[in-house]
Write a structure and sequence with these properties.
Elements: E1 2-5, E2 7-9, E3 15-18, E4 23-29, E5 38-44, E6 53-58, E7 71-74, E8 83-88, E9 94-100
Parallel strand pairs: 3-5
Antiparallel strand pairs: 1-4, 2-3, 4-9, 5-8, 6-7, 6-9
């Protein structure tokens, strides 16, 4: 995993990424051997009162409505402000995602 923005934190059982400037960005290549798993990624440090989004620059999407490039979803958050992303490793040559707050307020809320 190549983390372009944010920081990977120590965690057991899942990949945990901490925000940098209100977002994380990562790239995962397809494994050399089929993994047969969905990689659980948790994004921590989100504000649960704000909208959070997941922008997939490239990767796998189930269904025939897109080729998996430049797809946006609103990301649900748990009560602690964590977002959870299922990453399907085996179905695309490369997965490139950005997750976080698309709009961030300043100190005065503007």
């Amino acid at each position: 995993m190549n983390v372009l923005r944010g920081e990977r934190r120590e965690s057991v059982g899942l990949v945990e990424l901490e925000l940098q400037d209100s977002a994380v960005e990562f790239i995962l290549p397809r494994p050399a051997e089929k993994a047969d798993l969905t990689l659980p990624v948790r994004v921590v440090g989100l504000n649960r009162r704000w909208t959070a989004g997941l922008f997939q620059k490239e990767g796998y999407v189930r269904g025939g409505y897109t080729d998996g490039r430049n797809v946006f979803w609103e990301m649900g958050l748990d009560f602690d402000g964590n977002g959870h992303i299922p990453v399907h490793l085996d179905y695309a040559p490369r997965t490139h995602m950005i997750a976080g707050h698309p709009v961030v307020a300043d100190e005065r809320g503007k």
